[in-house]
Amino acid sequence: MKSYAERIYTSTGITTKNIFSNGEKVLHVGSGSRVLPGATTIDILPLPGVDVVHDLDVTPWPYEDNSFDVVYGHNVFEHLTDQLSAMSEVWRVLKPNGRVVITVPYFRSVDAFSDPTHKHFFTSKTMDAFLESDSGVASYAYTQKRFTKIGFWYGWPQPSKNPFIRVFKNFLYSHQDLYDSHLSLLFPAEIVIWELEVIKKP
Fold this sequence. Notes:
- This protein is of the alpha/beta class.
- Helices cover 19% and strands 25% of the residues.
- The radius of gyration is 17 Å and the shape is globular.
């Protein structure tokens, strides 16, 4: 079964169909007017399709604990002031075994710097702080709200039609430190995507 990220980001663009055929409750954070079909939406602006107008930097978010099966944020987390607080809210509103799909500009991308409201930059290791691990930045124990990494992608999850790009991406997934520190200077990804599963007791 494909991950949610692979079903949201199709070969022809972000899906325009409701992919949540199992009745999942989905929260689309920072949706703007481009709403993920089948999702409840929350945004700081009262745009068409927004169900709840709320500043995501203000916590708690206006939802009960264990309310959603999936949380989805496309180009929104880079705008938030406190990543620890935001991920704590994601953890809180997700049901046990719920998933979050996070898409942000890669730190080498021009888009990461072109918007003056961006407050954070993201490498392949940024979300490691929230993973169930005793190594790397996770060992600093900034938070006890933990997740399991289901998937990570530089750019679109769908395989490229270009065989060179497919081979290159397979290489860089095995050498992420090398890519982040050196190769991305020459070939920067535009976005990075994580799909994480919440760790919490029912």
